[in-house]
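HOLO CASE FILE
Compound: nickel (II) ion
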Amino acid sequence: MPTRPATTSTTAWANDPQLKPMPVRTILKMGDPRLLRIAQPVRRFDTPELHQLVQDLRDTMAAANGAGIAAPQIGVDLAVVIFGSAHNPRYPDAPPVPATVLVNPQIVALSDDEEDGWEGCLSVPGLRGVVPRCTRIRYSGFDPFGQPIEREADGFHARVVQHECDHLIGKLYPMRVRDFSRFGYTEVLFPGLDASSDD
Ligand code: NI
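Model generated. Tokens follow.
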């Protein structure tokens, strides 16, 4: 977080949005009961509160090098997730996922097939596990302005969406792990991975 120059007055600071520090919110960790709630649907779109929530999620995700984050992870009981990035140092081999804000999401499986893949979570720092996920999905929802979004996704894109939407029904990825011989500490499992960000 940038620090405010000592010479800047409080008034000037408040009037210049360029000078405001990034509001990086605390990410709740597994064990916090707020991560286990069923998130409430957003009922009003295009409000200052919703736009601020989205900005806080963006800033928090960026600071943590996350591939996605859900509102419950910063203690907000609303059905809002964001995900996507061109390149993520935590997932260097992953294909790009479109940067998306998804409100009140719904997922439909388009295939009975599942595939295993490694996942981590900002709420489960320092750990990775193999999680089976549906290979192909259709997801829908709304952007923060209330415009509908509907897409089909497969592979890593589908995995990210399923992981993030799980946060809205109180599911963390360790609850989806079936083979606990493939669950452990990132630094042990992937010693070459840049661990500069916690997870
Ligand atoms: Ni997560």
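CASE NOTES: Residues 142 and 148 are 4 Å apart (CA to CA). Residues 25-189 form a domain with the Peptide Deformylase fold (CATH 3.90.45.10).
CLOSED: yes
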